[in-house]
Amino acid sequence: MTEEAMLYGCVENNAVAQDFLYAHFSPKMLGVCYRFGKNREDAEDMLQEGFIKVFSQIGQYRNEGALEGWIRRIIVHTCINSIKKNKKFTDSVDITFANDVGIREENIPSVMQAKQVVDCIRLLPVGYRTVLNLYAIEGYSHREIGTMLDIEESTSRSQYTRAKAMLEDILVKMDIMLRPKSKASIKMGITATN
Amino acid sequence: MERNLDIDDFERMLKERSDEFKLYPTKRVWHSIYNNIHPGKKWPSIAMCITLISILMLVGYLNTSYIETTVATAGIKANQANAITTYTYYPLFKPSLPNKNIDDNNFTLNNNSNPFGYSASINTNPTTAFYLNKPVSNNKNFSDYIDNKLVGASTPLNINSVAFNNQFNTAKNTLPARGPNAVQIDNYPSNLIAERNASDKSFSDAQTKLIGKEQKNETVTLPSLPSIENTNSVSIDASAEQHKIVAIIPTDDNANIVIVNRNVENLKAGIDYVKSKAVSSNATLLAIAKKDAADKREIFLSDADKAWIENYALYNKPGAKKWAGKLGWQLYVTPSIVYRSLKDVLPSDQDINKEVVQHPSMGVEIGAGILYPIFKGVKIKTGLQLNYTRYNTDAYENSHPVATNITLSNSEMPGQFYQAARTTPYSNYGGITPVKLHNETYQLSIPMGVDFKIAGNDIVQWNVGTTIQPTFVFGGKSYLLSSDKRNFIKETSLLNHFNLNAGFETFISYKLSGFTLQIGPEFRKQLFTTNSKTYTVQEKLTTYGIKFGITKIIK
Lengths: 194, 555
Prior knowledge:
The structure holds 2 protein chains of 2 kinds.
Chain A: H1 3-11, H2 15-36, H3 40-57, H4 67-86, E1 93-95, H5 114-121, H6 126-137, H7 142-149, H8 153-173, E2 188-190
Helix pairs in contact in A: 1-2, 2-3, 2-4, 3-4, 6-8, 7-8
Chain B: H1 9-20, H2 27-37, H3 43-64, H4 71-80, E1 86-87, E2 89-91, E3 119-125, E4 128-133, H5 142-149, H6 155-171, E5 183-184, E6 192-195, H7 201-206, E7 211-214, E8 218-219, E9 243-250, E10 257-264, H8 267-277, E11 289-290, H9 303-315, E12 328-344, E13 358-375, E14 378-409, E15 417-427, E16 433-445, E17 448-456, E18 460-477, E19 479-481, E20 487-490, E21 498-512, E22 515-526, E23 537-553
Antiparallel strand pairs in B: 1-8, 2-4, 3-4, 5-6, 6-7, 9-10, 9-11, 12-13, 12-23, 13-14, 14-15, 14-16, 14-17, 15-20, 16-18, 17-18, 18-21, 19-20, 21-22, 22-23
Helix pairs in contact in B: 4-5, 6-9
């Protein structure tokens, strides 16, 4: 089924086309939800809510960008709304000293698997994790993140810096990545938990 | 949206690896999505459930009434015997009768008129008395006769009936039914079917009377029907060893009747006996039958055995079901008009109900239930009810969706609210195309309540009723008002799946042909908000309808 036919079928509320679209995009979108959610069940709930919105709003898709990108934005917004119900993003992690660590490519092993990275991201506190997901992976700016999460832009920046440092530390501790030479020691006291 | 910043190696690595990551969702997710976007597809399963419940109720009803034979049916069968010489025989049994001599008057019952155009009692078996009925000239059916004018049986009939009843008790639960109303009795002439008649008063009281019905029609030749004065003219069959006389004799001017059932050595002696019992010279001997000497099925019992059998039958009667004759099933439908009221949880200077233009619309409630009287004039009731609610909101549709927000409360932090981003093409105050937004819900509820009789008699009554209705909302459409009240957002995910309704009704009921019809106004109020508590605008529905119902008592 071509993407055009699939889109037309979904607009017409055709179950086969909807099934096809879901089967095509749901694995990747569940991966997105999994990075935001507390656990797999939580992620599946987000995916469900997100795809219901996708199918109910598919008539609004203007073919102006990639369909996957459009679906992904809806899924991400659904994840954010879900997280916002339960979490305040002003929670912070007290980091006494954290540098904006520059990690070079030679520190990243070529065999590093996607699941390892995602699992490490999910170890971050929810505030850090959300900002890191939105900025580093989804490509939103700090300004947009601030609007989405009802926080200051500067807060988003600092959260991201700290999240990145913490993730690097986790990756190193788990022997997934080599510790960069410029990495300073990090003292963490987590007040926001998953 | 994309930022114009340099992406360092670490971020690129994160993005690449994360994008590679895939997880395959369980089927539950797709089923939930599918059910949500195709609410109509749920209907087949719900319809199937209702069909199954209806079938179960029907089977239950038939099973509880398998012993109900309308004697009218028997009467009809007798009527269907067109040829004058072809009759269907109905043996009568009254096992609780003590051994009485024919001289006793216990067999005399009052009746105001002879219900039969042409009828007789006849004995074709020494151990069984058969009642022959062929109404020809009036509309009274056999049921009326059995109900009010049954006469007793003689000693041999009595013995036989007790034995029969005893066998019936044993056989009832083990032998397969031959049709819904009959069971075959083992160790008894195979052409006999036992039936019980629920409409028979004696059955209702004692539940022991059995009516055996000979399945096949037999052709017999009746002697001419002599008047009592002409008994001497009745020819006597000299070859008969013994005769049994069964007669219906008017015993007074009111045509009271008595059945006489006695073995006599010769027919004339029997006729004389009948004549001696008649108090009216107009009494008519309706039939005389000859004993079949070749019949070998006679049962001989000692007096002690008879007494034992009668006692056994008396103390081993099938227990009466407490709910029989009380429990009733009901079907009803309530066309209704649905109104809604809104309440903004957040403080506001304006009445939110005035900020939207909404119109009531038609809804309907369809249900089936059971009723049971617990006191005189008080019935409890419960059942299953399908509800469809709908109301309309005036709005405008734009060519492009606009970004907007709805205000939601934080479920874990009471008193805190946040804005959730949404897009919608529907606006409240102005737009390109005026549209009506149909807010609707599909509900399944379990009404539980009480009906009170206010006034009336057995036929016509005025009642009031009230119910509480736990409700499951399994589908619907909801258009939510945005935070700035300028837009409507279609959002079904916030629908409350569980709710509670309260109902109040008053109705007039009328009994007609075994059914009770009812009609009256009904008021139904939704107690909790339609949407999730997190949505700051609370909506409650109010329904006004006219309920039409039909009720049948299960016997």
